[in-house]
Amino acid sequence: MIATFNVAIEFGFTWRFEMTEPWRILSLPPIAEEIVRGLFAPLGDAAEVRFPGTGGRAGLHAALADAEIVIGDYTGRLRLDAEEVAAAPRLAFVQMPAVGTDSLDVAALTARDVPVANAAGFNRRGVAEWAVGAAFALCRNLVRGDRLMRGGGWPQAELLAQRPRELHAQRVGVVGFGAIGSEIARLFGALGCDVSYWTRRPRPEASATYRDLDDLVASSDVLVLAVPLTDETRGLIGPERLALLPDRALLVNVARGGIAPDGAVLAALESGRLAGAALDVFDTEPLPDGHPLRAHDRVLLSPHAAGGSDLSQLNLVSIVRDNVTAAVRGDGVGNVINGVNPQVRRR
Prior knowledge:
Layout: E1 3-8, E2 14-19, E3 23-27, H1 33-40, E4 47-50, H2 56-64, E5 69-71, H3 82-86, E6 93-95, H4 106-111, E7 116-117, H5 124-139, H6 142-150, H7 156-161, E8 171-175, H8 179-190, E9 194-198, E10 209-210, H9 213-218, E11 222-225, H10 239-242, E12 249-253, H11 262-271, E13 274-279, H12 292-295, E14 299-301, H13 310-329
């Protein structure tokens, strides 16, 4: 028998659900349980929120046995590989609380006809502002000056000898032109920079200039990486392309580790091809203790936090809440990245 009931949502309207049993929502770490429960409390009996009972892969497999909707682990520690997808026979929808989906086996989910959604655009302004701020810091050697001052020095002459630059006079190249890349280009352009970009599908409406990738790298005083990590983009900015950079170029990576491998970036810094780098992402996260990047005085380090502003986090929880709620309601979900029908259906 189908049970019918109404759910009053805090915004003042009522949704009507018809179903035989509540949807089983499995939320993976690291999002705190109290946050997730609060997001979906308005759904009442229409949904049952669960969490892995134990840590590690064994706990994940057990929790997946009857999960219908999964909110993924954006850290990648609990990946949904093909084996995990096979362990979830009722899986109907996966929502990533992030832009990247590299912690999922998207091909395996697509083969199962499971729509996968991300949170595209939630942190576009936050990441773009970080990229611009990092470029400012590199151009004016702000981090080095701070370190030397804290050590008791007065490095005025040393910093001037580093030939500090004004950002507006730099040629900026943006690799990737999705929600984040286009916002990065817009902000640099507003500062007066000459901005170019590369993406696999040029955007006729873009205000920035499209260039082939090698041409972009060779003509960028500041190269900003904002492209997703895929099999095609892994190692995209490796030793050969880094060698194309102009003298004293700067690198800003807000994309993913592995697009510009850490070893290649270190080699470019040591050779002098790179005058500095601002890195929010790394091949291995957390960055291991004792890693050479931690001690390099021309590197600005950030713990994968470029998009971590208050507004970005509010945007993120709103996207996750609205998309999962739409799935439970029987409406189509947004931001599906694997071409599967966005109408979520129970298995």
